[in-house]
Design brief:
heterodimer; A: 58 residues; mainly alpha; 2 helices; elongated; B: 491 residues; globular
């Protein structure tokens, strides 16, 4: 049984299907991450100062 | 191994400045932690900004900063996407967090819930899993602190490890959850800003197009969306993260601490923000993978600091130091305070002193924070490469917790015996799979086996449960005359 599972997982790991990312999708992927992480700072700070004004921080 | 990224003088200055600054800020944030509700739950009324930041910073561990780039370097796009799947744990916990707060507004720990919902046998096995997990997590963070500081600054391994654990422990000891959450807010911002600077600098220097062409020429497999190892990695990461978050008191205590109206949004927002972090750190690693002539990577787990230092010189090394320090401190402080709470509530108050007054509960929790910190130092003293493997091993155990927790929160007929066997057999099946087949699928098998037992057992033998029983959490063990303040009452 173990051998069967091992063979199956090994075969899956060694198989070689391909679907490559194109340049446009790659650019979207990278910039989405960069913009997402940068915007998140603004979101957190925006919420924070809004809560400071409304006395809702704690 | 290459030289340190920061000179000893700069490294010591930064460490001392950060140490003093962190402890002072911890005192400042925690200056009102004079009651148990403030010390352990920051008043149970934390707003959206702090709640989101603390969840995000806690989930950004040393591994997120160092291992996500490593996975990107090894598996390409799927290494990044797969690592970011860990954010699904936070997203999936969002509705559970609302339910937890609604059912147990005075709750203390995840153990509270399991004991009241399923009884002592299920609680017993759940506590074994919880303790095994938090000890493994503490040790991996302690070792990561020593290892990464050694590489960045040239400090001896033990010096870096002890420095970060001690600084974290001091501000946690005095300020409790208020200090942890306050510091997490600052640390979350530091992590995000420093990462953004390095990543934007890298892609502004080389351009996305050049990196893409470099990958096509040198590592075309990195762009393959059907990489089997990447798919397995992604699945296991997502399920492991669900198990970690669903069972761990780190996240339950945050649910109790947050204001009711922000619970759902804070987990959702922090999950989305967190998922962009491995994308950014991984994208930095892709630059090194695409341009092998430009970057020499002798150790794959040092990809991120090498790229940052090559691009930005000592400033890059400093930015990496800040990110790593903030990531480790936020995670360690959360683990220390929530693990101490778990032991205080589920052992001390349950068995030793059920009528312990407010001050005693706080003091016991403080002592346990110090004990756990010393234990972390002792267990991390000698670096063992297989420790991360031990943490991965807990994937089988925490994976088995997902369904008993979720069913217990939502399904009135959830069967306690089924929960017991789901936890036990799910863990055994996952561990067996881990050792005999693949560590990649341990969490998956633990989760599937426990799901079948939990759902099947409940359908065969449904039990009824009075939801109002859970409202006793955090109050039943206390005497009538004790002095704890009204929940969420103080501002």
């Amino acid at each position: 049984m173990n051998s069967l599972w091992s063979d199956a997982s090994l075969a899956l790991l060694q198989s070689d299907p391909e679907l490559n990312v194109g340049p446009a999708l790659f650019a979207v992927f990278v910039w989405a991450g960069l913009i997402g992480v940068a915007v998140s700072v603004l979101i957190i700070l925006g919420i924070f100062f809004s809560e400071v004004r409304r006395n809702k921080v704690w | 191994m290459r030289d340190a990224f920061l000179s000893p003088g700069v490294a010591w200055t930064v460490l001392i400045v950060f140490g003093i600054g962190w402890i002072a800020l911890g005192f400042y944030w925690g200056r009102r932690a004079g009651t148990t509700n403030q010390y352990l739950f920051a008043g149970r009324n934390v707003g959206l900004a702090l709640a989101t930041a603390t969840l995000m910073a806690t989930w950004v561990t040393g591994n997120t900063v160092m291992s996500a780039p490593e996975q990107a370097y090894l598996l390409g796009i799927w290494g990044i996407v797969g690592y970011s799947f860990a954010g699904f744990g936070l997203l999936a916990f969002a509705p559970l967090s609302v339910r937890i707060k609604k059912l147990m507004p005075n709750g203390f720990t995840s153990g509270d819930f399991v004991h009241l919902r399923y009884g002592r046998w299920v609680w017993g096995i759940f506590m074994v899993i919880s303790i095994f997990y938090f000890l493994g997590f503490l040790v991996t963070q302690g070792m990561a602190a020593g290892l990464v500081l050694q590489a960045l600054t040239g400090f001896p391994y033990q010096v870096g490890m002890v420095a970060i654990v001690l600084i974290t422990t001091v501000y946690t000891l005095f300020g409790g959850m208020r200090a942890v959450i306050g510091m997490d807010f600052i640390q979350a911002l530091l992590i995000i800003v420093c990462l953004t600077v390095v990543a934007v600098w890298a892609y502004a220097t080389f351009g996305v197009g050049e990196v893409f062409r470099g990958l096509q020429e040198n590592e075309p497999g990195a762009l393959n969306l059907l990489l089997p190892a990447g798919l397995l990695f992604a699945w296991n990461t997502g399920l492991f993260a669900m198990g970690e978050i669903f069972h761990s008191n780190v996240w339950w205590q945050r649910s109790y601490a947050s204001a009711t109206e922000v619970n759902f949004r804070s987990f959702l927002l922090s999950g989305v923000i967190w998922m962009s972090v491995p994308v950014v750190t991984g994208s930095i690693a892709l630059v090194a993978l695409a341009l092998p002539g430009r970057f020499d990577i002798p150790q794959v787990n040092m990809t991120f600091p090498i790229v940052a230092a090559e691009l930005l010189g000592p400033v890059g090394g400093l930015l990496v130091f800040i990110v790593v320090f903030a990531a480790l401190a936020s995670t360690l402080s959360s683990l220390l305070t929530t693990s101490a709470t778990l032991i205080t509530e589920d052992f001390y108050r349950r068995f030793v002193n059920p009528a312990a007054p407010d001050q005693r509960v706080r003091n016991v929790s403080r002592i346990l924070v110090a004990v756990l910190a010393l234990l972390t130092i002792a267990m991390s003293w000698v670096y063992i490469t297989s420790v991360y493997g031990v943490l991965l091993l807990t994937g089988a155990l925490v994976g088995a917790c997902v369904w008993p927790i979720a069913c217990g929160l939502y399904w009135e007929k959830a069967n306690a015996n089924a929960a017991f066997w789901a936890l036990l057999l799910g863990s055994v099946a996952g561990l067996t799979f881990y050792f005999t087949v693949s560590s990649f699928a341990a969490a998956l098998l633990g989760l599937v086996v426990s799901a079948v037992i939990m759902v099947g057992g409940t359908l065969l033998r449904p039990q009824s449960f009075d939801w109002s029983t859970l409202a006793k959490a955090g109050t039943s063990a206390r005497s009538e005359g004790e002095t704890r303040e009204h929940v969420g009452g103080e501002q």
